[in-house]
């Protein structure tokens, strides 16, 4: 009988041990960090979408002070980031690179959101007086992106860009 009691006690011990281990595993799972959230395909906020579907998240320069500051003193600009300069009326808006530390592509856009001129790989200004880069055409906005982005996405005069979440911007 003693051996039967020993076997029963051993089985009970095994069951208790299994329960303790199961509870330990469950409690470890409760303290672990949640699985990472899936990456979003597109972030919200103002964007300019190129004809090939590539989207650039943009900062907005819609008043004189912000347009004058532009991308000055930035030492990096990701390929999917840029700045859109919005003007209150169409005109010939030359740009310059004073205090700009990185080369940029500049894309002038008319009131129909068509590209009217692209200046590729415009270098930072190293000394005064800084040269200006005129479009030679009337535009209503200018998009600045990192150098090489316009060429990589085949941007050229006459193409239409899509503006997202920019319809309610007040331009001064």
General description of the model:
The protein folds into two domains: 1-36; 47-164, Protein of unknown function DUF192 (Jelly Rolls), CATH 2.60.120.1140. The chain is 23% helix and 29% strand. It has helices spanning 2-31, 64-69, 149-152, and strands at 47-49, 55-61, 81-91, 95-96, 104-109, 115-122, 132-133, 139-146, 162-164. It has a seven-stranded mixed beta sheet with strand order 6-5-8-3-2-1-9. Residues 15-23 and 25-42 have low confidence and may be disordered.
Shape: globular
Q: Helical amount among residues, as a percent range?
A: 10-25%
Strand order of the largest sheet: 6-5-8-3-2-1-9
CATH architecture of the largest domain: Sandwich
- Record field, number of beta strands: 9
CATH class identity of the largest domain:
Mainly Beta
Number of domains: 2
Q: What would you report as the Rg, rounded to the nearest angstrom?
A: 30 Å
Number of helices: 3
Supply the helix-strand structural class.
alpha+beta
What does this entry show, briefly?
By secondary structure, the protein is α+β, with helices and mostly antiparallel strands. The protein contains three helices and nine strands; from the N terminus they run αββαββββββαβ.
Keywords:
172 residues; alpha+beta; seven-stranded mixed β-sheet; two-stranded antiparallel ribbon; 23% helix; globular
Topology at a glance:
Elements: H1 2-31, E1 47-49, E2 55-61, H2 64-69, E3 81-91, E4 95-96, E5 104-109, E6 115-122, E7 132-133, E8 139-146, H3 149-152, E9 162-164
Parallel strand pairs: 2-3
Antiparallel strand pairs: 1-2, 1-9, 3-8, 4-7, 5-6, 5-8
């Amino acid at each position: 009988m003693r051996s039967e009691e020993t076997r029963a006690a051993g089985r009970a011990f095994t069951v208790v041990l299994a329960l303790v281990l199961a509870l330990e595993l469950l409690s470890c799972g409760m303290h672990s960090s949640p699985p990472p959230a899936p990456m979003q395909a597109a972030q919200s906020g103002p964007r300019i979408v190129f004809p090939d579907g590539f989207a650039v998240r943009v900062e907005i320069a819609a008043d004189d002070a912000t347009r004058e500051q532009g991308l000055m003193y930035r030492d990096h600009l990701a390929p999917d980031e840029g700045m859109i300069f919005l003007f209150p009326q169409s005109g010939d808006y030359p740009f310059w690179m004073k205090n700009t530390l990185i080369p940029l592509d500049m894309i002038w856009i008319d009131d129909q959101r068509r590209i009217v001129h692209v200046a590729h790989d415009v270098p930072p200004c190293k000394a005064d007086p800084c040269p200006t880069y005129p479009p030679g055409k009337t535009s209503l906005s200018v998009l600045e992106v990192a150098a090489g982005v316009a060429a990589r996405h085949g941007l050229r005069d006459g193409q239409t860009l899509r503006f997202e979440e920019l319809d309610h911007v007040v331009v001064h």
